[in-house]
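Still learning. Show one?

>
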Amino acid sequence: MSEKIKAFAAMEAGGKLVPFEFEAGELGAEQIEISVDHCGICHSDISMKNNDWMITQYPFVGGHEIVGKITAAGGAVKGLKVGDTVGLGWNSATCGHCDNCISGFHINCPNLEGTIVERYGGFAEKVRCNWDWAVKLPDSMDASKAGPLFCGGITVFNPFVQDNIKPTDKVGVIGIGGLGHLALQFADKWGCEVTAFTSDLSKSDELKKLGADHVVNSRDDNALESLKGKFDMILSTVNVSLNWRLYLAALAPKGRLHLVGATLEPIPVGSFDLIMNQKAITGTATGSPIVVRQMIDFCARHGIETVTENFKMSEINEAFDHLENGKARYRVVLENDF
């Protein structure tokens, strides 16, 4: 008989998370099993729990910002061993042989597997993944704060790699929450001149400590107009509509408006907004394993950490309420207490 794993699951859309057990099944040759020590809660967990994207299957066990120790490894696992502390994010497997994978762009694999899509995630005692999507943590990194790096962190780190951002570039970050507070730190340590766009100017001092050189009201059209032609990249982490024409105007020649926030309304853009000065709108979702490794090394080198609030796994519903009510500063992390 296969191992039974304890977890918390939603049984229906919008439902509370309740104790749940599932059969683990046989461990695959290229899989590892991770004993979950900490797991962050992401807004994507809320969207999946509520079936906002119409892809959720119930019972639903979320959790994709996972840190823990490897307790078992299949016979074909490479570079990792039982006892290693690793992190796992939104993705848990790819085919490994398509053109995208062998080019290092696993994130574009047509067989990309989501950690909490049609399988059980990290709100549990244990979770499994293919070995190449687990990244070993440096000894210097605080494992209790590292989980959110594997989703929120890589989501805002990958644009710096994809858009070839230079240390001399000027970067703006829209929305300073779970994603944005990490983006400020990345941009600052990258060497950029950093502007934080926020609707809450009362956080200005805090944002400057995180790495912002300037703080601007994200909805102040006059302030935005004064920044015309300034930015090499503006990174948007928000899921609400803004005056996108003014943000495009704020881009320097060849500048990028890079989207990682899932704004559901279409972005109005005219062809001349892009043609003139060769501007572009780009986007990414998380990142491939090599970029995740680079991010972890970058964080360890520069002492970058997630600002977290901690709850016990048994307090998971209170933690979800805290996040959904907009009280999180800036990332909620669960500690396993099964």
About this structure: Residues 153-283 form a domain with the Rossmann fold fold (CATH 3.40.50.720). The mean pLDDT is 97. The longest strand covers residues 31-41.
